[in-house]
Amino acid sequence: MTRSAAGTQFGARAAMERLNAEAAPLHIWLRTQANAPAQPPWFRQTSLEAGGTIATGRVGAAQLKPVAHRWRWRKIAPYLDRIAEIARTADISPIEFAERQQFLLTNPGLGGRLQVTSTMRCAVSIYNPADVAPVHIHTPNASRTILSENGGYTTIEGERCRAARGDLILTPSGTWHDHGNDGNAPVVWIDVLDSPLMEFLDCVWLDEDYPGETEGNARAQKVKAQDRHSQRLYGRGGLVPAFVEHRRGFAADASPMFHYRGAEVRAALAELRDGEGDPYEAVTLRFVNPLTGGAVFPTLDYRAMLLRRGEETRFKRETASTLYQVIEGRGATEIAGHTFDWEENDIFVVPGFSWRRHLNRGPGDAVLYAVCDRPLLDKIGQYRAQGRLSDDRVTELAP
């Protein structure tokens, strides 16, 4: 009796599945399906809508895709007040049992995972007066973007960085750091980390056994460096000292400059305001490692963008995913066929491969900070970008 090819295939698959039931306790899987691609070639689709699909079956069972999303500050900020009230009135501070006083943002496309893209985690933290997060060290690279006028401080490798609104403070992988508020009002900042990537690579660890001298009961590291240490060493463009050890902590290729001041960023953007800018990125400054001119972290790149009154960028898409933080102004960003209005302190994410453009709809200039995972994609040879010309043709953009 002759069986059809389809019947043979079906019978073989069923037999393999039965064997898999037996083999499961051995933690092996007999392949019963081909690899399922997540999406067709993204660069051949020219529509503005989101592209790509979730893979099906055993091969793609764990795959999740981030989606474009905006977190409105006026809706999420009240939860910071609730956290602060608990910290003021409860028997112990949340720092004691949760290590931080914050909430984390979750991307609707990632099934509840504590991440906003495949590579980035984002949290919003609040510290009451006298709060201190004890000194610690960890493998993920992290940053704080300060939202309060008085932003408290972070001490990194003995350098105390006293913060103000718009400041960017880095804690590279392998640097000892602690956070605190020595002011009279609560302070708020946005934390961004590459934790999801480190977790995927099984490279996450944290240590609180600080070997140096501490101050007070809260175990803050003793300050060793003078005020504005980073600025004195690295704050003059094109010049770096030749007599110091630049590596701070054990991270390789991370910026030795920890503190980038918002007032200086805003002044630099203002000086460039009358220039032509970039049709896809407007007037943009890059936060760089002063030793290399490259990204501040091996995995994440940080930028500040000025959108002038009435300015609209052209559509662009890239393989990298980007998280935006609104520092100043009001506007909108069109992402994969959807429009997301934004205002001061709002946070939104543009997943990789998604067409996006920015529009300033406010009465004055707008300033956005952006964090993307391009350095990682550059290193694995997977960064590409495309733009739409004024006649709607798609063009490849230079790296």
Describe the structure.
By secondary structure, the chain is α+β, with helices and mostly antiparallel strands. It has two domains: 1-30; 69-396, Jelly Rolls, CATH 2.60.120.10. 17% of the residues lie in helices and 29% in strands. The chain contains seven helices and 25 strands. A six-stranded antiparallel sheet has the order 1-21-18-23-16-15. Residues 1-8 have low confidence and may be disordered.
Examine the coordinates and then state which fold CATH places here, giving the name of the CATH topology of the largest domain.
Answer: Jelly Rolls
Could you list the spans in which at least 5 consecutive residues all have pLDDT below 50? 1-8
Structural class: alpha+beta
Overall geometric form: globular
Which strand order spans the largest sheet, edge to edge or round the barrel?
A: 1-21-18-23-16-15
Tally of domains: 2
| Count of DSSP strands | 25
C-alpha Rg (nearest Å): 24 Å
Helix coverage percent: 10-25%
Secondary-structure topology with pairs:
Layout: H1 5-23, E1 69-71, H2 73-89, H3 94-98, E2 102-104, E3 121-127, E4 132-138, E5 142-146, E6 150-156, E7 159-164, E8 168-171, E9 177-180, E10 187-193, H4 195-200, E11 206-207, E12 214-215, E13 220-221, H5 229-234, E14 259-260, H6 262-271, E15 283-287, E16 301-307, E17 316-318, E18 322-328, E19 331-335, E20 338-342, E21 347-350, E22 356-360, E23 366-372, H7 374-379, E24 385-388, E25 394-396
Antiparallel strand pairs: 1-21, 2-3, 3-10, 4-9, 4-11, 5-8, 5-10, 6-7, 6-9, 8-14, 12-13, 15-16, 16-23, 17-24, 18-21, 18-23, 19-20, 19-22, 24-25
